[in-house]
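Lab notebook page, bench 4
Experiment: in silico fold of construct C2
Operator: M.H.
Input chain length: 461 residues
Purpose: comparison with the prior construct
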Amino acid sequence: MLTFWGKFTVFYFCVISCCLLNFVRLEDDLNIPAIAKYFNTKGRYEEVNTYLREDILAVNTSILQPPSAQCREIHLTAIIRHGTRYPTAKSITEMQEFYNIVRHNASGEQSWLQEIQTQWTMWYTEDMDGRLVQKGVNDLKHLAVRLSKLFPSLISEKKLRGGLIKFITSSKHRCVNSTLSFKAGLTELWAIRDQEFEHAVNDALMRFFDQCTRFVQEVDNNPSAVTEWDKFKEGPEMKRVEEKIADRLGVEYNLITQDMAEAAFYLCAYEFAIKAVNSPWCQLFDEDDAKIMEYEADLREFWKRGYGHDINSKSSCILFHDAFSRLDKAASENKLGQPVTEPVTVQIGHADTLLPLLTLLGFFNDSDALTSTNYATQTQRSFRTSHMMPYAANLLFVLYDCGGGDLRLQPLLNEKPVTFPGLDDQQNSMPLYQDVRNHYRHLLSGCDFETECRLLKHPAV
């Protein structure tokens, strides 16, 4: 039996342990910028799935809820964005320009400003130009391990060694290196050292947007296609953010343009994404500012890759058909009682690969379009790239055989089940595969890449 002092010692130890645990959590929170959840496509995957902050390999198998215990997964198509990368050369040039303004023009006694001016150095160089960073390598390694834990019968050592897991990538170095990282996650998990695994480079699939002539000419290279984005950049909300930055720095208003505000926002975002640092640059924005910066980025994505123009989503027809042809083949082989010859396909591309496909499928389609004048009424919008498209974002299609010819398809976005928009009977987010095909029959029969991407001929005047 414990004496009084023994009980006191146990109680004291418990109190100290709890305090230390809370202190560690507080320290972790202090390392995360208060505005981190607004970093749009520059955000960490851990800000979308916050449980990964404590355990980067954590999975919750209970999210997979087939309608019966008989259900077994027979095919997985994973379409994945590359991992965390350096800024592009253009962004680095703008960040350097903004840094020079702060270093030479800013005045003030704030400790964070002193830290920027006396301790922080511009370490980004233009030759980094969007290349994968070590955090990006880890993003894909960890994702590979988590998916192998979620779908152990599909992503298995036996299937990998047997050549039954197919890898396809964009030609961009960040995507190729992400593909290598995903494979390394599996080979390290199973200590495979006696075998290497190939991948195919396929820009027709993973960079379809570059090869869609109509999209390139009508949207990508057409300034008038993003008029709403341009108007917002010149609008009152952005002006207010720019003025607040100037006030915090003690510089003249004309020095802080929209490009400089974006450069400041990216300095905060990249320092956090790449180094996990809550940098002094983040002090230039409060939450209201960050929401405006997020909306500005969402406007661009909406009009250049999302619902703003029909060709944005139609440019992804080729990827849509590719995914459903794999699903159809697996379904057909399974129906004939044959082994599925391609149980897993891993395809790695860009945010610009995933966003048009999600749009084509009808995800995150708000009742009102995003415009330059409706920021105030779009606070609850579903089209929010911070939630949809962090680094290593992924869209999974998992085909299940539930017995008796009952095939079901579960979509997951960023490892969380989602429901196909417009399908009434969701059956725990796992509808009948035939119902999904019927729902998208207009795309399966009419979404032809060559036809959609052919530049429309305007009648002579």
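Observations: DSSP finds 20 helices and seven strands in the chain. Confidence is low (pLDDT under 50) at residues 19-27.
Next step: discuss at group meeting.
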